[in-house]
User: What shape does this take?
Amino acid sequence: MLSFLKAFLPKPKVRTLAALQQFLDGEAAYLAQKSVVDFARNELGSLSAQAFADQRFQDRLAVSRWDGFAATLADMIMLAHAHLLEGGAPRDLLDKRLGDLYAAILASHPAPPHRTQGWAADIAALRTRLAERPEGPGNPQSYARATGSMVFDTLPFAPRDPVENRTVLEGAFAFGLIAFNDRLRRLLVVAPLNDELAAARQ
Assistant: This one.
């Protein structure tokens, strides 16, 4: 009951980089978990209970959830980057600090078995995305389509209609990321975050 009510409780404003890190971590974990698990249950239908009771299936589905988490987290950082940049954050410091924040969030979780090489390639890719992102708002729908398509290719079962079901999973990530972007716009208090970034230059 408490976990159900938690979704309706007002979320605190995000005024510090530490709070931003915690917010992004929780939001990305929730969206990746919900999108992957709900899709699998709906697609497997009456077979889902048997599949989810199989540890081998759970282990393979964890690959989709972890890769979805890392990709969704990167998408969310791109959206935070757009909001902070619009609010006047110094670009050089913002690019570096958000790349560092991504690395810190991934490092805060035990490395999953399929990621024995770590997340270095993902971190490097996110830093490149940040450096190359043009001025202006982020595009949550575009980001989520790419993430949903990537996650679809990691699923531990063959969906009945690959074309349609890829679109369904992409849509689940898009719906969640658009909603996240709306929450981010409401909760992000840009001025103190920019002050914290500027203080790092001194």
